[in-house]
Amino acid sequence: MRKRDDQGKLLKRIGDLLLKGYSFSEAIDFLLVSGRSGPEKLKRSIIHSLQKGESLSSIFDRLLKVPSQVSAQIFFAEHHGQMGTTLVEAGHYLIKKNEEKQKIVKIIQYPVLLVIVAILLMVLLHKVLFPRFQALYSSIGYDETTSIRYLVLFIENFPIYFFVLLLILTFVSFFLFMLKDKLFQVKHVLLLSKLPLLSLFIKLGHTHFFAREFSFLLRNGVSITESLIIIEKQSYRPVFQYISKRLLRGLREGETLHECISKIPLFKEELSFVIAHGQTNGRLADELEMYSEICFTELEEKGKRILTYIQPTIFAFVGLFIMLIYFSIMLPLFQMMQGI
After folding, report:
1. Is the pLDDT assigned to residue 329 strictly greater than 70?
2. For this UniProt entry, which segments traverse the membrane (predicted)?
3. What is the distance between the alpha carbons of residues 134 and 141, in angstroms, rounded to a whole number?
4. How is 33-77 classified by DSSP, letter by letter?
5. 52 phi and psi, to 5 degrees?
6. Cβ 24 vs Cβ 50: under 8 Å
7. What are the backbone dihedrals phi and psi of residue 18, each rounded to the nearest 5 degrees, phi first?
């Protein structure tokens, strides 16, 4: 159950059973069948936690290690009552994230193979071909120009540069993964939201999540203030604790909700207009839910568009690299022929 795909399938199936009238305990008892040590142990742990009165969001977060976004969704579902729908959507989300991850791997695996082949080719040239050319140049008294010398030096040392860069990226990725809870706090997210490319994705993601959960709470009779208090109580998404505190402070100071929303840098500007329009015609929950779906669709489209640029970029890099190898070999020959 550590794999996102397995987690997504389990959440989706539990949600489907809840929508059909099963209780959570019955759904767990049905899905985690006996006879296999893993599911049986997980079932016992979940049932034991339920008997102790532990919340579902805490159980999923502690036992299944689901992402914080999913834990927060389940936490809100405990208050607005749409647990079945929430689990189904959370399951779809995890399955889709796993599919996107596999797509990225498929997109980059062939170009990465080309890069490795190009590096091996370069090592072969450095060990076999370049020494012979240098011996030839020395025998006929040809002096390489400075630009050619630097080009050949770069190609000879490129494998070292590449592996050093790869080592640095691996170390940085490991460092970010181990310290992600400490590094990506509210102040860091606010800083990242100012970067041109990341800003759009951060705002779309936060706007979608807030509008969706806020609409569910409002639809089930929870007031605006109570909804913000519930959002503030969850601990899975610190950013939304910060947002709810700012909104509650603004409401206490006499500002309207859409005015408070417009001052939050993590939301798209349209969210304040959607809230103002929804409050005017009395359909705030419906319009927030519709707008959250619009943001999610736009987020998916932007992500897919970026994926389409990954492979061509890597191919362009490989092509440029092969051209450098070609020029490093042919340019000295052309200069020698011109000197004859």
Report:
1. no
2. 107-129, 160-179, 314-334
3. 10
4. -TTSHHHHHHHHHHHHHHHTT--HHHHIIIII---HHHHHHHHHH
5. -80, -5
6. yes
7. -65, -40
Which tokens sit at 139?
């025998």
Within its chain, how far is the Cα of 166 from the centroid?
21
Nearest CA among 236, 189, 230 for reference residue 213:
230
- Assign 20 to helix, strand or coil: coil
Per residue in 113-139, pLDDT (tens digit) is 777 777 777 777 767 776 776 666 666
Nearest to residue 318, comparing CAs of 106, 148, 108?
A: 108
Q: How many whole angstroms from its chain centre is CA 154?
A: 35
Q: What's the pTM value of the predicted model, to 2 decimals?
A: 0.75
What digits encode the pLDDT tens for the residues 86-108? 999 889 888 888 887 887 777 77
Alpha helices in 179-283 (DSSP H): 180-183, 186-192, 196-219, 224-233, 238-252, 257-262, 270-281
Q: How far apart are CA 115 and CA 314, in angstroms?
A: 8
Residue range 141-181, pLDDT digits in tens:
666 666 666 766 776 677 777 788 878 888 887 777 776 66
- Rounded CA-CA distance 277/261 in Å is 13
- CA distances to 8, 28, 37 from 18, in Å: 15, 10, 25
